[in-house]
Amino acid sequence: MTEQLTTGTDVTRMRELNALSIVRALRGNPPSTVTELAGRTGLSRPGADVIVQGLVADGWITVVEPDGSSVVGRPARRYRFNAGTGHVLGVDVGAHKVLAMLADLDGTVAWTSRLPVDPGADPAARLAVVDAAVDECLAAASLRPEELWAITVGVTGPVDASGRTTLFTPLPGWASVKPAEHLAARFSCPIQVENDCKLAALAERWQGAASDADDIVYLLAGMRTGAGLIVDGTLRRGYGGAAGEIGALRAVRWLTAPSHLQKCASLPAGIDTDDAAAWVFAAARAGDKAARTAVRRYTRDLAVGTAALVLTLDPQVVIFGGGFSRSADLILDQLARELRRTCLRVPEIRASTLGAESVALGALRLALDEVDARLFGERLSTPVAPRA
């Protein structure tokens, strides 16, 4: 064993592993001294110091010069992970808009581009808006396409292993589209495609209302209803990517639940379908009896599918997200009452804190996970964008 450990290959690998441990100790943590890093990684202080200086030279970490102090002696230098050495992109392709977010390797958003798109747009027109939003982010950050480290695209409908929404999607013609293949013509980094509900669930656990939970049911509530599931801290996709699509079962009434808002008796004539729900929620707050009835019926139907998921998974929290989350004040208490009628244990129900940005933020999180898995899980070389 001793002879094997002294071979050049093993020494090189040991240095790589130690460098990885230092980088992991810095990611997501405040700037740290060499002594703190040595304690956190189990390395000797002299060994940690040598590795830190090498990582500074390679660009993985930067020096934080100590502030002036009245304390006798010079304060120790601190080091931090150089998150700006790379960037990732998250894109939310929706029915009415495309939202692109560019972030550094710590997940700090550097630029956001939100562009409208016609709900009836064909795939080519929608992909053109995707390209425009992505280009706007890159131009704002003065980045070239080859400098991106990972991209994740969020779309409506279940996503299979090829990145297509083969089962169903409300986007016209989108079932034939392969977003990853389209973007791969310009970008050489890894590109993933994932369902919007699942990405929103990831975002809420990362930065939102479920940051303290490992077992989560996320409800995307709007004119379309869907769910994202996180169990034991892991996003559940299912064999074919359709986990959480309980709304496909007509008996749970998710498909028809929004119609209660669209058919509210007091709804003004001629109001656009897309604006009906907002009008009903506002009228319900103002005391309109018909609007309150419509909201109650909507919530009752929403509770059927939610109860099925709660009874199946027994989550710690249910996150109420999507476009209707802006009216959570009208829904959450009643939703809890409905669940108490059928569920053995009612989890805490919370409103989303991320709103319309949740899908794009979840896409960023998944892109960062891809960077970690590919880069930090194997070896630590010069910090350049990994290739697909």
From TrEMBL:
Name of one Pfam family that matches: ROK
Top-level taxon of origin: Bacteria
Domain HTH marR-type per the UniProt entry, residue ranges: 19-67
InterPro entries documented for this protein: ATPase_NBD, HTH_MarR-typ, ROK, WH-like_DNA-bd_sf, WH_DNA-bd_sf
Similarity remark: Belongs to the ROK (NagC/XylR) family.
Protein name from the UniProt record: ROK family protein
